[in-house]
Sequence to fold (115 residues):
Amino acid sequence: MPSDCLFCRIIAGELPASQVFSDESVVAIRDIAPRAPTHILLLSRKHIASVSQVGEKDRDLIGKMCAVGAELAAREGIAEGGYRLVMNVGRNGGQTVDHLHVHLLGGRPMAWPPG
Ligand code: 5GP
Ligand code: ZN
Fold:
């Protein structure tokens, strides 16, 4: 675990977070600066810098993160109205934390294309 990675430290319990889900491969927390009424971050337990770094053996993890996102959307009551699952990748993609995560955003209409 990189000791300087914010999300690794949250997963390890070294830093506080509002956790909404946890299993052997995924941890979900509420975003500290929510951009929508529901804004949850789905974190891989394993440190991977971004989806660009996902190797062959970790591919199932991406599907798993999306499935957990769908499950949490239902639990949050935003599934029916619709929601968005987002991965920001790299500088132009708007990624600010280099640890694999999917944003679950919902509870309001989303614009397209994103800014
Ligand atoms: P990115 O910009 O890399 O796609 O997403 C990183 C997200 O992490 C941002 O939405 C940001 O608000 C959130 N974030 C940054 N620091 C913290 C923190 O300490 N705790 C939590 N829960 N979220 C954080
Ligand atoms: Zn990490």
Q: What stands out?
A: The helical segments are 6-11, 59-76, 90-93. The two ends are 32 Å apart (CA to CA).
